[in-house]
Design a protein that fits this description.
By secondary structure, the protein is mostly helical. It has helices at about 5-15, 25-45, 50, 60-85, 90-100, 120-135, 145-170, 175-195, 205-210, 220-240, 265-275, 275-290, 290-310, and strands at about 250, 255. Strands 1-2 form a two-stranded antiparallel sheet. A hairpin with a 4-residue loop joins strand 1 (about 250) and strand 2. The termini are far apart. The structure holds Phenylacetyl coenzyme A (FAQ). Phenylacetyl coenzyme A (FAQ) binds near residues 134, 197 and 205.
Amino acid sequence: EASAEERLFEELIANEQRIEPRDWMPEAYRKTLIRQISQHAHSEIIGMQPEGNWITRAPSLKRKAILMAKVQDEAGHGLYLYSAAQTLGITRDEMMDQLISGKAKYSSIFNYPTPTWADMGAIGWLVDGAAICNQVPLCRASYGPYGRAMVRICKEESFHQRQGFEILLTLMRGTEEQRQMAQDAVDRWYWPSLAMFGPPDDQSPNSAQSMAWKIKRFSNDELRQRFVSMLVPQAEILGVTLPDPDLRFDEETGRYEMGEIDWDEFFQVLRGNGPCNAERLERRRTAHEEGAWVREAAAEYARKQALKAKA
Ligand code: FAQ
């Protein structure tokens, strides 16, 4: 027999209304939101590194300014998301500990290297493109603070995606060497960006419950389809080839047929064995330790202000 609170929760979900921090919610709903939102926040923060790698070497002042703004946006996204997670009763310190101790997950995609400038284009076009497909439906997530944070994040991601597309377009209009550089970067990022959407539907343990709670609105495979159908015409405009010889549109089903994603590689990356996992984590840990004095100074300042206010 459901309690009155449970019935109210179910009713809010059924009527497309929002669950807010002070509302009653099942413990499992709270837990799954903390899991997803904190992983998402960690992804934004770790996601600053592959591109941060190119800030000092951007090919012009304008490119540098744009890249700095983008990486700064990612820090901002991380902060909104940590704040949204905090409304569920976990602290920033707990989340940070989980990240730097290697216990927390963050998106697989940020464990790949960025050897050339063209990777900045491929990340913007493919990684931010995938992020948009995944995150636009999250603007309607049933948990209020998460859905609202996603609205602003998605607007910024759209700009990020266009700037990536424009980097690739510029390279594709350049010399033969530049065109090759752009194609190589697309070859590097295409498959990992497809894997970002998560395991296939029949191997996605969280999807059914998250969809019933209206946190997720579409399945992992459904979103992957949408992503590919967005990419195909854009790849044509760019003049790049998507590195999947099996990719074709099936008129009968109205869906794209695609080659098999390397799920072994994906699960290896999740276990910490991707090309850059160790480096990403080490960098974050060092930054956290070196930033200790800032946190201490801020806490001390707040303490003094509070004393002053009392006096
Ligand atoms: N990487 O049962 P499911 C960005 C895990 S965009 C690592 O399907 P769920 C913008 C999953 O957590 C990137 N782990 O799980 C940007 C679960 O493990 P758990 C971040 C993955 O939650 C651009 C297990 O596999 N975006 O940052 C991945 O229903 C450029 C089973 O999977 C988000 O986080 C993966 N790719 O669906 C920044 C979006 N996929 O937790 C900088 C919000 C799955 O049980 C530069 N999150 N796993 O131990 C989501 O939409 C969902 O959590 C999914 C996974 C779709 C990622």
